[in-house]
Design brief:
Layout (H helix, E strand, L loop, with lengths): L9 H30 L2 H29 L1 H23 L6 H13 L4 H12 L4 H31 L2 H20 L2 H4 L20 H28 L6 H21 L6 H19 L5 H12 L2 H15 L5 H30 L1 H16 L4 H11 L10
Helix pairs in contact: 1-2, 1-3, 1-5, 1-6, 1-7, 2-3, 2-4, 2-14, 3-4, 3-7, 5-6, 5-14, 6-7, 6-10, 6-13, 9-10, 9-11, 9-12, 9-13, 9-14, 9-15, 10-12, 10-13, 11-12, 11-13, 11-15, 13-14, 13-16, 14-15
Length: about 400
């Protein structure tokens, strides 16, 4: 699988893209701690962090559409400059006296709105330098695994930086990561070649207008739902066992399972149709959620969460491959972003409901309900649509290039 990193132009774009993407893994925590220290209020910090997250999710498809239209270098560097400016402005505000809470909310939302879609952009680079089929699957797999590791290591790194200096410095470091990583990625030849379609583009190229694509997003809502419930259930179960400190280890087990799943997915020689793969993965994740709900001890629960996580990264990778299959080249950055948006939306909705269910009936019921919902949503996979286009789009040795 690592052989894809040796493809011409791969590492030159991928390594700085990871640096830029680390800003999202670090930014939320850096923002929370900096605003809390500056205002002395966890409530204000929480509202600002929520504004950052909501703005990021809402604007994601439109930012990706801008990349498809104007090209990676123009769109990504503009967004990265805006986000870095926002992080720096927040760092300066937290050191000022008497700043109204309104401005923290506004700047936090602006930072979320301007986040460059480096993950989706990097997947377009992978698509442009790999052949469709096994090679592209390996590229998307290693990309997904590294992204998982970023979100495991990012909070640890930024916490160490903040402890050694201050929360404000954490925001400066995050700004440097997004600006420097984006500039280095977009200066690579493989990224510069993705110049965008120009103009407004054909409306028929939009991902949501492609037959079957919305059904894929509905399926992935279930995947996100299981993710969201797991993230709430882990600390709840730890608290139930009077071991709150174990919450981090439980979530780490979940993330480790996802990373292992992504590695295995990239190594396996998968012959089945891509629609069947998505169905099996989503059904397996739903069943695993139901299974883990019945595990009593912390050790078994951690193992169960790792099992659930095993299907997360492969489900995302399959979603990216389906986006690459269903959507014309001119809309694929947006399509890849919609895959993430669907999973994030499912996670957010499930987290909100899971909190209520867990408080009243326990974590086991929240996991069972979401597992059953994921199983039901898996039935929406557009098998017929994917089967009709898969022979030419998923296995043919053509290259995906964008002028």
């Amino acid at each position: 699988m690592l052989a894809v990193l040796l493809l011409p132009g791969a590492l030159r774009a991928f390594l700085p893209a990871l640096i830029g993407r680390s800003a999202l893994a670090m930014g939320g925590l850096a923002l929370l701690l900096a605003i809390q220290e500056g205002t002395g209020s966890y409530a204000q910090a929480g509202f600002a962090t929520a504004a950052f997250g909501i703005a990021n999710v809402i604007a994601a498809p439109w930012r990706a559409r801008a990349v498809d239209r104007f090209g990676q270098r123009t769109a990504l560097t503009t967004m990265a400059s805006g986000q870095a400016t926002g992080f720096i402005a927040l760092a300066l505000l937290t050191e000022a006296e008497g700043v109204a809470a309104f401005w923290f909310l506004v700047l936090s939302a602006a930072v979320g709105l301007s986040a460059p879609p480096l993950g989706a952009a990097m997947r377009m680079v992978w698509a442009s330098i790999t052949t469709a089929g096994d090679q592209r699957t390996k590229a998307f797999s290693i990309d997904a695994v590294c992204e998982e590791l970023l979100f495991v290591g990012g909070p640890v790194i930024i916490t160490a930086i903040i402890v050694a200096s201050s929360p404000g410095v954490g925001l400066w470091v995050t700004a440097a990561a997004v600006l420097g990583g984006t500039a280095a990625m977009t200066s690579s030849a493989s990224s510069r070649a993705l110049r965008g379609r120009g103009g407004s583009g054909a409306r028929g190229d939009r991902p949501l207008r492609q037959p079957g694509f919305v059904r894929v997003l509905i399926v992935l809502l279930g995947v996100g739902g299981v993710l969201g419930v797991a993230e709430i259930a882990a600390p709840a179960v730890a608290a139930q066992h009077d071991a709150v400190a174990a919450s981090g280890w439980l979530l780490a087990a979940f993330a480790a399972g996802s990373a292992i799943g992504g590695l295995l997915y990239g190594q396996l020689d998968l012959k089945g149709g891509i629609g069947g793969r998505l169905f099996v993965l989503c059904v397996s994740m739903g069943l695993a959620a139901v299974l883990v709900s019945q595990l009593d001890t912390l050790a078994l629960f951690a193992a169960g969460l790792a099992l659930v996580g095993l299907f997360l990264a492969p489900s995302l990778i399959t979603g990216y491959l389906i986006a690459d299959t269903l959507v014309p080249v001119s809309g694929r950055t947006e399509a890849s972003t919609w895959i993430n948006t669907s999973v994030n939306l499912g996670a957010s909705l499930a987290s909100a409901v899971a909190g209520i269910v867990i408080e009243r009936s326990g974590a086991w019921l929240a996991l069972v309900l979401m597992g059953v919902i994921a199983l039901a949503l898996a039935s929406v996979v557009p098998f017929a649509r994917l089967h009709t286009i898969e022979p030419t789009a998923d296995r043919a040795p053509d290259r995906c290039a964008q002028d």
